[in-house]
UniProtKB/TrEMBL annotation:
GO molecular function annotation: ATP binding; ATP hydrolysis activity; transmembrane transporter activity
Protein name per the record: ABC transporter domain-containing protein
Residues covered by the ABC transporter domain: 8-241
Keyword Lipoprotein: no
Superkingdom to which the source organism belongs: Eukaryota
One CC-aspect GO term: ATP-binding cassette (ABC) transporter complex
């Protein structure tokens, strides 16, 4: 499984929600470039607009203003071309009544992609180190195994963009660490452009090529983990850098 990762460009993205207490500015002018095959972490405190930006990129939300380009094509207000997008939702949203294998092949079956489904399952079980578990049901799996099924399912249509919303959220710290190294290896091997939403600084530093720091709907700073750690401009990062040194 090898793909040509997409180049994704977000320009001046704005999303306002109408609420009972007036207009809520969830994302307020965010611009960011994602290079093919790289991992970008959207990092910031809870409620800072990370998930909203992820959903805007996926086309699951209509932007108030701003543009999204997928390999140079303006796809604003539409979703990413169907098969090109893999999404790992918070909590994974696996189908409990389907086997692991059927969870994984759900996308290709729905889209009638005409793949050799058995071969696809074997390939993905191997990639995510779940060999032999294709016949199990999600409730029979550990948290880490469920997470890997969600990643395998998201990769089943050979997407060129992989979006993950707090993919390690519900797991204990030891599992989190080994899984994020696993995920990094998978992304490297597959070549898919990847965006991860997280509120965990250590995680962002460990996994990402590029870190985008969000606060109150705006990007406070972005760069490689080294660049950001060298000259942190957000109190959110300063605390973290102080903690590890
Ligand atoms: P994060 O992922 O950084 O925790 P979110 O993007 O989920 O932040 O949410 C940012 C803010 O936008 C939150 O305060 C949330 O309540 C608000 N929000 C998200 N979706 C909606 C919606 N559909 N209607 C109103 N407010 C929303």
């Amino acid at each position: 499984l090898k793909v040509r990762g997409a180049k994704v460009v977000v320009q001046d993205m704005v999303k306002h929600f109408e609420t009972r207490r007036g207009l809520f500015k969830a994302v307020n002018g965010a611009s960011v470039d994602m290079e093919p095959g790289t991992i970008t972490a959207l990092l910031g405190p809870s409620g800072s607009g990370k998930t909203t930006l992820l959903r805007l990129i996926a086309g699951l939300e209509e932007p108030t203003a701003g543009r999204v380009f997928f390999d140079g094509e303006d796809i604003t207000g539409r979703s990413v071309p169907d098969r090109d997008l893999g999404f790992v939702f918070q909590g994974y949203a696996l189908f409990k009544h389907m086997t692991v294998a059927d969870n994984i092949t759900f996308g290709p079956r729905m889209r009638k992609m005409g793949l050799d489904l058995e071969a696809k399952v074997e390939e993905l079980l191997q990639l995510t180190e779940l060999e032999g578990l294709g016949g199990r049901y999600p409730p029979q799996l550990s948290g880490g195994q469920k997470q890997r099924v969600a990643v395998a399912r998201a990769l089943a249509c050979n997407p060129r963009l992989l979006l993950l919303d707090e993919p390690f959220g519900a797991l204990d710290p030891v599992v989190r660490k080994s899984l994020r190294h696993g995920l990094r290896d998978i992304v490297r091997r597959v070549g898919v452009t990847t965006i991860i939403v997280t509120h965990d600084q250590e995680e962002a530093w460990d996994i990402a090529d590029h870190v985008v720091i969000f606060n109150k709907g705006a990007i406070e700073q972005h760069g490689t983990p080294e660049e950001v750690a060298k000259e942190p401009m957000s109190p959110f990062v300063m605390n973290f850098v102080g903690d590890v040194s």
